[in-house]
Design goal:
The chain is of the alpha+beta class and about 100 residues long. It has one domain. The protein has three helices and six strands. The strands form two sheets. It has a three-stranded antiparallel beta sheet. Strands 4-3-6 form a three-stranded mixed beta sheet. A hairpin with a 3-residue loop joins strand 1 and strand 2. The protein is globular and about 35 Å long. It starts with 6 loop residues before the first strand and ends with a strand. The model has no long low-confidence stretch (mean pLDDT about 90).
Length: about 100
Amino acid sequence: MSEARDLCECEMHGAQRETFVCAHIPPRIDHGVDCGFVCYPGPDDDGLTDAWCFDCEVFLNANGGEWTDEVKVPDGLSILCAQCYLRARKIADEHSRLRVN
């Protein structure tokens, strides 16, 4: 069973489940530009887990390899609707820059 998620209002897709990504991913989606996409496998089949770019992955690995209260995503998080998230993930996959840890 999928975990309950809050909804967000997307200008393009309307009310959707919200996801959290590093602030570097959203500005590139509309241009089809990939900055890498790293996420964990989800607890269910929707694949909507927190995600971050390759630069944030380098930062994470240089600081212990785990997001904590002390090791936060550089430049913060952004909310994406589920459809925008899947689009960003697909763009990265098409450029062979999707990494599911």
